[in-house]
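Review form for a predicted model. The reviewer records the input and the model, then writes brief findings.
Reviewer: anonymous (R2)
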Amino acid sequence: MSGGWLVTGAGGMLGQDLLAGLAAEDEPAAGLDRAALDITDPGAVRAVLARHRPSVLVNCAAWTAVDDAEAKEDEALAVNGTGPRVLAEACRDAGTVLLHLSTDYVFAGDAAAPYAEDAPLAPRSAYGRTKEAGERAVLRTLPDTGYVVRTAWLYGEGGGNFVRTMIRLEGVKDTLDVVNDQRGQPTWTADLAALLVRLGRAALAGTAPAGVYHGTAAGETTWYDLTREIFRLLGADPERVHPTTSEAFVRPAPRPAYSVLGHDRWAAAGLAPPRNWQEALVEAFPALLAAERGATRAAR
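Model under review:
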């Protein structure tokens, strides 16, 4: 492959959907999972870029075990901070555009209005700190060809996630207690993949300014209201879902109370902003349901 796309972290939920989206758009692409490429190894990264010679590299590789990062911050930093720096340096020398995935956890999570792309960073967890380090490395190393795309509340058919978990639990629980004091934007990985394809194309065309973009669905909701919507789509009674607070589910890493991100920068690139989360969930739901029921059958 020369002049196409290269996806790191290709074995994950987003990486799978991105490769599928690129194939649907007839974009030449290759994907490398964690076993195929250690993004913290400069020699390995440079060898891969020399072999594939991509025009665009999308980094979906990340340490995503949020709670484990609290006790293993150095290990998480290697993947989330050092890795993006290594990729950025190699992309700089190869003339490759880099799209790097980041997270809402770089913010404090205490806002009352959607976070703008240039809002101050104030992570409250080890995971958030490591992701901030990766963002800064990409933007510093690639001021003209580096793109940071923050996302949050991802779900898709290709991996474990909240929506699939709620589909499964509806079938085995009479009632569910779900957190109602955290707000965010449920985001379908297939929708985010389509955004990344459009952004990468605009970057190559010179119409998308480098910098930070927010790749989350429009609108906002809570985990509780999202679960009620999932129950409705299943034909189940939403009243079986009961609201609770974050104190009921204490985790090692603090969860942002407010993870709503603004989307103003898409207009600067001449691109349509993401669609509403409810519209996307309705479209995604049949595949999610089939995937979860297939996994349940396989586990028996």
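Findings: The chain has a mean pLDDT of 96.
Further findings: Residues 5-160+185-219+259-275 form a domain with the Rossmann fold fold (CATH 3.40.50.720).
Recommendation: see findings above.
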